[in-house]
Each structure stands twice: as C-alpha cells, then as structure tokens.
Amino acid sequence: MKRSMDSEDCFMKKFKYYKSNKPKPSLDEVISLETYKFAKEVENITFTVKHDSRTRALGLHDISNWKAVSLSRHPGFIIIKNPFTSLGQRYWIRKCLEEYAKKPNKRNIDIDTDVDNWWEECFKNKEVDRKLQKKLRWATLGYHHDWDTKVYIEDNKGVFPAELAELCDAIALSLGYNKFRAEAAIVNYYHMGSTLSAHTDHSEVNLEAPLFSLSFGQSAIFLLGGHEKSIEPSAILLSSGDIAIMSKDARLCYHAVPKILPSSKQPWNDPTSVEKTDENFKYIKEDEIIDSMNRNLKEWTKFQAYVEESRINVNVRQVLNENQICL
After folding, report:
1. What value, to the nearest 5°, has the Cα angle with vertex 158 and ends 154 and 164?
2. Which H or E run contains 17?
C-alpha cells in the first residue's frame, strides 16, 4: 500500500521540489534549450512552411530562422525557441496588459472589483497601484473558460482578438496544422511566487487540435508528465518568447508551473521599427498592426516595469470541430 501511495504522489513530489524556496531547488535536471545539456532528449523539428510573408508584421523573425524541437519522452509536445523579434515581444506584452485585460473579456478580478480598464486603473493616480496590478491573475478571450464546470457554452463567449488569431494561424501553418482556428484563449499573469497546479486540458470539443502556449517576460519551470500523476514529469525551462505546442497525446498529460524564475536576458529590449509589405492577411489590416507595433519603440516604460518582475502566458485553443460554426 505504501508503495502505491508513493507512486501516486510522483507529480506532486516534483512540483513541491521545484516550488520550494528553502532550500532552493537545483536546476541541474531542468531541460533548457539555451544550454542544450539534454541534447539526447530533444529532436529537431522541420517546419512545413519555410516562409510566411506575414511574420515580420506579426513581430516574428522569418521562419527560416526559427528553431523547434520535440522531446523524446513526450510525443506531441513541441517547443519553438523564441521566434519573436524584440519589438514583437513588446507588442504582445502590451496587448496582454493594455487590451486583453479589459472588459468585456472575463477576469478573476471581476468577482470583487468593478474595473473596466484594469491597466488604465493601475495608473489612475499617476503612481502605479501595485496591489491592483498584482491582483490580476487571468483573463479569458473568445469562448470563455468556465473554471467550475470546465465546459464551454455558446452563450458565454466574446470576440476573439483578430491579431492573435493571425499570429496563431502563422504559427500553426509553419508546423502543418492547416485547419487550426484560434477560438479561445486564457491569458495567465504570473508574479514571483506564483504557481499553476497540475491539470490537463480537456475542455475543448476538438481535442485533436493543438494548443499554443506563448511565454513573455520572466522565465518559468514547466512540468510535463503523463496521463496519470504516478508518472514522473520532466522539468522544462520556458523563457520569454518561447512557444510550447501541445498536440495529440500531450494535450491530455498533466502539466504545471511550480516556479517563476528571473530571466537571464531581456529579449524585448533591442527593438527596431517595422515597415509595411503589402501582404495578404486573413484577419487583420496590416497598416493597423504595424502602426500599433511601432508605438512600442518609445511608449514602453510602464510595460517594461511590469514585465521585469512578472511572466505572461497566453494559451490559445480551438474549441470547435472543423465542420462546426457553433457549439
């Protein structure tokens, strides 16, 4: 009986180990694509699409410069190592803080705070309201995730951001997911000391579609296990700009974030402007996204202060099956 209990606690033991501050955990077993200590555990991925003319306007380097790997222990899990330009990181960080945290998107602060524009309210009295700033933990976009029932319903949805849909379309096509549609997102706002407990992502009707997870700001240890908590998870370092993709078998595996770590770099701090290319976009007008992106060359100080001590994670999903137009 004791052996069975020990086995069942395997995921939680690893979670508690990396969450600990006294003593601090060793990072020697954490898979990092920056150091390539675990080269035997990763396999390079070849992109299906070699070039997409939308990438620069979306804040991405050309696909020919991207690097992606899979993990031998975790079929269906892929990491694209920071394909974002410096200005692109600024753009998406700002979107998450200034736009995606607004009503009518749903947020954890709606329970006891009557604030339409959270980011603006944080600076209402010229000095930052750090208590309100740190109070925001999540916002949902498109089909809103119900944290109690874990079920999406047609009457509980908003308009999914067109620019985020465009970004995810470009990423999906690069990996051969030609039919992916971005329909729901959860934006998580982490601070030093924040965690995310073990869970699986099984709420969507279409579990064949991939889940795209975008990281910005400070780094995180990401635990990825198996279908049961008895399976010991791998610890993976996710840094600013990294994109994790969970598809097929990986979607139903337990995963968690036990610790936020100070980033060793600030890849959002060397921006250059973007020019129009007259390319075809599916969901947005190129002029608008380029103008919005170039604003961040100078209008950045408040966002810089936030991201220097926080992590933002955007999880994008397809809710419906290919032939569905509603639930």
Report:
1. 120
2. helix 10-19
